[in-house]
Amino acid sequence: MTQSMAQTMAQQTGTSIEEFVREAYEAMEALDVTRVATMLAADMQAVDGVMRTWKRGLGEIGAHLATLESSLTDEVSEIRDMGIREYGDTAVATYVVEQRYTFAGKRHEDIAPTTMVLRRIDGSWKIALFHSVPLAPES
Fold this sequence. Notes:
This protein is of the alpha+beta class. The protein has helices at 3-29, 33-37, 57-71; strands at residues 40-48, 55-56, 72-87, 90-103, 106-121, 124-132. The protein starts with a helix and ends in a 7-residue tail after the last strand.
């Protein structure tokens, strides 16, 4: 394989990973918990600004998603500064997400450096780890 072919394949894979990440946010904004569930690895681990603690496995993640489904509204996410590294059947996406949403009646505006680790399972990317904890507001 020539170097240019390898670069082209890496760019195509990077694009599909970026599309996957963006699709995950679109599904969350739509509160499409069924769609989100298809994107998760069985042993997923996650923490975000709403959870404020680690959730491990589909049972804990599912309970969290059910809470979001009943308490989260008006979510809008903007992803910027995405970097993608692929290591065979594992990929790491790092980016900054700016989110505006209402949770349990309270309005939030967050900026969070975020890491999503994906694992290719049976030919499809699945989220294995999600880490997104907002920065404290600037003074």
